[in-house]
Amino acid sequence: MENNLFLDAAFSKQTERPPVWMMRQAGRFMPEYWEIKNKYSFLEMCKTPEIAADVTMLPVDLLGIDAAILFSDILVTGEAMGGDLSFTQGVGPKFANPVKSEADINALATDCLDRLQYVADAIKVIQQRLNGRIPLIGFAGAPFTVMSYLVEGGSSKDFKLTKLLIHNHPELAHKLLAKIAKVTIDYLNMQIAAGVNALQLFDSWALALSWNDYQEFSHQYNAQIIAGLNRTNVPVISFCKGSSVFAPIMAEAKPDVVSVDWNADLLNIKKALPAGIAIQGNLDPHILYADKPVIKKYILQLFERMRGEKGFIFNLGHGIMPDIPFDNVKYAIEVVKEFRY
Ligand code: CP3
Predict the structure, then answer these.
(1) What is the tally of structural domains in the chain?
(2) Res 38: pLDDT
């Protein structure tokens, strides 16, 4: 790899500066994304390897980040299992046939890797285009977060149906989570075989859970997944919103990196984790709306706090919002790349 900063930091080795990539770096804040998006639906983009590769490469070529992330979505596993998935502008993701009963859970497929072959194909095209310049991150949704979309039928503010399922029918929730976990292990192993250099598990909505429910309905499945990966030299990043609280439990699942939301002090979180677990984060993405001197001040504040720490990857606490000015994102990346420990 020409640029090893990201993999070195993920394995807690010393780097000359923090590596940088940003969640949702290949997205709507880029005018170039819209040029493609105006011609295809989001799922067509994901399912056409050449287009998925084009979009994956946008932030590589236009922003100069230190790692690329596969262009896809966490909900493609739910679709492969039998969910009727669509994405509508302004509405977000929808499953038209939400899981409402044990029969619905039984009907979901677990041998469905063939329906995700397009992802392996995209990874191969992307790796040809990257040509060893920077690593490629693959990813999947964590079972709890994917379950929430299957059960709610889309995005939710309060996760009412998901919580009713886990509280009133925990055995059914476990049946569903176990099925998603099985598919996720197969899916991530397929991504490793296709050539990704790192993986991130997105448990975006774990913050909805209490401490005990997080362990029972999220953590144990994430741990199963991480233990089930056939990997050497492919680091795993565990992300959730809620990591400010759950980071010590997340570390028990043995990821290489814990990705932290913006609520916590990153150094305090790192110090509380076992040695050898790197940390990723954790700028509030809203800072990227602010004036450039403010952006610089917040990034350098974070870097001063983390100075001397091995195993630090700079990222946001959550994804880039679609209306963040492109120029601000570009500037933030320049600030990171000029910094030296
Ligand atoms: O990070 C990247 O640039 C790589 C691609 C990527 C997408 N989604 C593309 C996408 C990744 C890693 C994801 C993960 C994802 N998808 C998560 C976890 C990360 C997070 O933000 O918490 C979640 C919860 C989803 C589910 C999802 N997909 C939602 C809620 C939405 C709608 C979001 C919105 O703001 O409208 C999507 C659609 C989606 N996924 C888009 C992109 C670029 C927008 C599609 C479009 O309308 O152009």
Answers:
(1) 1
(2) 96
